[in-house]
Design a protein that fits this description.
The protein is an alpha+beta fold. Helices cover about 30% and strands about 35% of the residues.
Length: about 180
């Protein structure tokens, strides 16, 4: 990706839309981001393909119009991705959730994460008919500042909800983006 050129953003709503090559890129990205300290679902490091593959396969297997994988490609390489979904329960079907936002370290600082989040907002509003998005982040990472710049606001915390190691308890920070 050259400076100033936007990533190519796309989405997958069906497991059949994820090629073997894209699956491997997703897994490689997840391993790299996790081992670089990213709070993307694997707190006990290091992780490898054997740990990440079954989780990625489960995420891919559940893709549907209600659970989407949004990807950013830069220079024909997966630069990052995010998972967007909703619960079909009619009481909460007006809001969705975002999880696992990640950008490969080589692409950090180029706006990939912000572009993915803007795309998630657009897809949620225009294609899924959602009114708000929810997200939880691990305390102690500074992620709430990144999301605040994108319009998200903190709605609460679960103090000490995450135990990463003895003596390393972190808050789970709850964020909302509303209206979309």
């Amino acid at each position: 990706m050259t400076a100033g050129s936007p990533p190519v953003l796309s989405q997958r709503c069906d497991p059949g839309q994820v090629s073997a090559g894209l699956r491997q890129e997703l897994i490689d990205c997840w391993v790299t981001v996790s081992n670089a300290g990213g709070a993307v679902g694997f707190p006990f490091l290091p992780v490898d393909t054997g740990v990440v593959s079954p989780v990625a396969d489960e995420l891919i297997a559940k893709l549907s119009p209600d659970r989407r994988l949004l990807v950013a490609v830069a220079g024909n390489v997966l630069a990052g991705w995010v998972h967007l979904g909703r619960d079909p329960n009619p009481v909460i079907a007006h809001w969705g959730w975002v999880s696992r936002l990640q950008t490969l370290p080589a692409f950090r600082g180029q706006g990939i994460g912000a572009a993915l989040m803007a795309h998630a907002r657009q897809v949620a509003r225009q294609e899924m008919g959602l009114e708000q998005l929810h997200l939880a982040v691990r305390g102690g990472t500074g992620l709430e500042c990144f999301y605040a710049r994108l319009g998200w606001r903190e709605t609460g915390r679960w103090p000490g909800a995450l135990r990463l190691a003895p003596g390393d308890d972190r808050d789970e920070i709850l964020l909302v983006l509303s209206p979309l």
